[in-house]
Structures are given as structure tokens and as C-alpha cells.
Amino acid sequence: MADDGDLLIEPEVILDTRWVKQRSIFIEESLVQCKRLPVDYATWENSQELCDKFININLKDKVSVTGGSIDKPKRSLRVLVKNPKYLD
Predict the structure, then answer these.
(1) What whole-number distance in Å separates Cα of residue 31 and Cα of residue 42?
(2) Number of structural domains the chain divides into
(3) Has residue 74 been placed in a domain?
(4) What is the CATH number of the domain that holds 17?
(5) Could you list the pLDDT tens digit for every one of the 88 residues in the chain?
């Protein structure tokens, strides 16, 4: 509770994410369950605004990694076989 009697809402967990179209662009929304509230009261919130307002929020796999990625690009191991139809 805040000093003025208002209930402070703080996100506890992100239940789901979705993309919605607003005007001509798509934005990501997150289904947020707040602390001290049941799952039935979870609401869809703009993911970017959540990150801006609550800097310590963890959006599951959406947390940015510092120092780059550990993923390495893979090259195909498939052997190139020329089509006999076009051999001359």
C-alpha cells in the first residue's frame, strides 16, 4: 500500500505473450499477473512499457544477453548435387 492508501501494483510473472496490430505496426503484449492478485486478474500490457517501467522484470526468454550470443551460425552439411537435367 502506498501512503495515500492506493494499492501498489507490481508484476510477479509473465504468463504469455502475443503480437497485436495497432494502426500499421505490430507490438508485443505480455499477460501479466501482479503480486498479491489471483491469475484471474492478469491483464495484457505493452511489453516495452513494462520493461521501461519495471527495469528488473524478466520476460522469460526475452531478457537481453550482454556480450553477444552463444549461438553460432551453422552451415548445411548437405552435398550439392547438380541436376542431371541441366548437365550439358
Answers:
(1) 6
(2) 1
(3) no
(4) 2.40.50.40
(5) 555 666 667 888 888 889 999 888 999 998 888 888 888 999 999 988 888 887 776 665 554 445 555 566 667 777 888 888 887 6
